[in-house]
Write a structure and sequence with these properties.
mainly alpha, 70% helix, Rhopdopsin 7-helix transmembrane proteins, 354 residues, 2% strand, two-stranded antiparallel sheet
Length: 354
C-alpha cells in the first residue's frame, strides 16, 4: 500500500468497480500519447511558422498546443495510476499537478479554440472593422489573460485535499464518491463558463463564416463543401470531446448523493472524461493539418524521406518543382483575390490571414 496519509475519507467507503481503468483507460492513454506527442510537436512548429510570418493565429495555435503537450506529459503518471488499480503511489503534490494539468488542458484548450474561431470570424466576416483585435500584441494579451484566469481558478478550486482512501484501502487521486458539497457549485461553473458559453461563441462565429461562404458567388462549390466540412467538424469535435463530460458533471451535482448512484454513473462518467483526452489529437489535425498548403508540405517531407531511403523513383522529385512555396496573405491581397473571384480566399482566411 502507499505510505500516503489521505487528509479525508472522501469516498465514504463506496465500493466502486474500477475495471474500466484497467481495460479502456490504458488503451486510450497509450494511443493519445503515441499519436498526440509527435502531432503536437509538428503543430507547435506550424504555429511557430505562423508567428514568424506575423500571423496572430500562430500565437493561439502555440498556446493551444502547449496546453495539449503539458497534459500529454502527465499521461504516463495517469497510466501507472490506473494500471495499479487506482492506487496513487506518488505524493499529493504530484497528484495535484497532474489533476491541474488535466483540467487546464480542458479549459485552456476551450479558451483558445474560442480565440481561433473568433479570429477566423473577424478575418472572414469583418476583415477591416476589427483589425486592431487581430494583431500579435492583442493575441499575446488575450493569451496571458486566459492562462492567468485558469491558473487563478485552479488555485481557488484545488485548495482541498485531492487524495483519499477508498473501500479497498487504495489511495485515489482526484476522485470523490459521492462528490463533495463544495464540488457542486464548481461543476455548475465549469458547465456554464467552461462549456456552454464557449459553445455559443463557436456556434456564432462559424455560423457567420458559413453565411459568408454561402453568399460568395466566386467560391467554387468544392471549396464551399470543404469549408463547411472543416467548420462542422470543429463544432462536432468540440461537442463530442467536451459535451458528455460537462453534462455528466451537472448530472452528478444534481443527483449524486449516495454510493449507489456513484457506482451506477462511474463507468459512463469516466468514458466521458476519456473523450476529453482525444482533444489532444483532434486539435493539431483540425487546425494545422487541414490546411492544404500544410498537407502538401508534410506530403513533400514524407516523400523526401522515402526517396532518401530509396523507396521512390527519382522521377517523383520533378513533380514537386511545380509547387510554389507558401507565403502569408495580406488583407490587401485578400480583397484583390475576392474581387477577382479566386476560390482560395475563404479557405485561406480559415487557416490564417496576416
Amino acid at each position: 500500500k502507499s505510505s500516503l496519509q489521505p487528509k479525508e475519507n472522501a469516498t465514504e467507503n463506496c465500493t466502486i468497480n474500477h475495471d474500466i481503468h484497467q481495460t479502456l483507460s490504458p488503451v486510450v492513454y497509450i494511443f493519445v500519447f503515441i499519436l498526440g506527442l509527435p502531432a503536437n510537436c509538428l503543430s507547435l512548429y506550424y504555429g511557430y511558422l505562423q508567428i514568424k510570418a506575423k500571423n496572430e493565429l500562430g500565437i493561439y495555435l502555440c498556446n493551444l498546443t502547449v496546453a495539449d503537450l503539458l497534459y500529454i506529459f502527465s499521461l504516463p503518471f495517469w497510466l501507472q495510476y490506473v494500471l495499479q488499480h487506482d492506487n496513487w503511489t506518488y505524493n499529493e503534490l504530484l497528484c495535484k499537478i497532474c489533476g491541474i494539468l488535466l483540467y487546464e488542458n480542458i479549459y485552456i484548450s476551450v479558451g483558445f479554440l474560442c480565440c481561433i474561431s473568433i479570429d477566423r470570424y473577424l478575418a472572414v466576416v469583418h476583415p477591416f472593422r476589427f483589425q486592431r483585435f487581430r494583431t500579435m500584441k492583442a493575441a499575446a494579451i488575450v493569451s496571458i489573460i486566459i492562462w492567468t484566469k485558469e491558473i487563478m481558478t485552479c488555485c481557488f478550486v484545488f485548495t482541498h485535499g485531492e487524495i483519499s482512501m477508498d473501500a479497498e484501502s487504495h489511495v485515489v487521486c482526484f476522485e470523490h464518491y459521492p462528490i463533495k458539497e463544495w464540488e457542486h457549485n464548481v461543476n455548475y461553473y465549469r458547465f456554464s463558463a467552461g462549456f456552454l458559453f464557449p459553445f455559443f461563441l463557436l456556434a456564432f462565429s462559424y455560423c457567420g463564416i458559413l453565411r459568408v461562404v454561402h453568399k460568395s458567388h466566386g467560391t467554387q462549390k468544392k471549396k464551399k463543401i470543404q469549408i463547411k466540412r472543416l467548420v462542422s467538424s470543429t463544432v462536432l469535435i468540440f461537442l463530442v470531446c467536451f459535451g458528455p463530460y460537462h453534462i455528466l458533471l451537472v448530472v452528478r451535482s444534481l443527483l449524486e448523493n449516495n454510493c449507489l448512484f456513484a457506482e451506477k454513473i462511474f463507468n459512463i462518467y469516466h468514458v466521458s472524461l476519456l473523450l476529453t483526452t482525444f482533444n489532444c489529437v483532434a486539435d493539431p489535425v483540425l487546425y494545422c493539418f487541414s490546411s492544404e498548403s500544410t498537407s502538401q508540405n508534410f506530403a513533400k517531407m514524407r516523400d523526401s524521406c522515402l526517396t532518401c531511403l530509396g523507396c521512390l523513383r527519382t522521377e517523383t522529385k520533378e513533380s514537386y518543382l511545380l509547387n510554389a512555396p507558401e507565403t502569408p496573405i495580406t488583407i490587401t491581397r485578400l480583397l484583390s483575390l475576392w474581387y477577382h473571384s479566386k476560390p482560395v480566399v475563404l479557405m485561406t482566411a480559415l487557416t490564417g490571414i496576416s
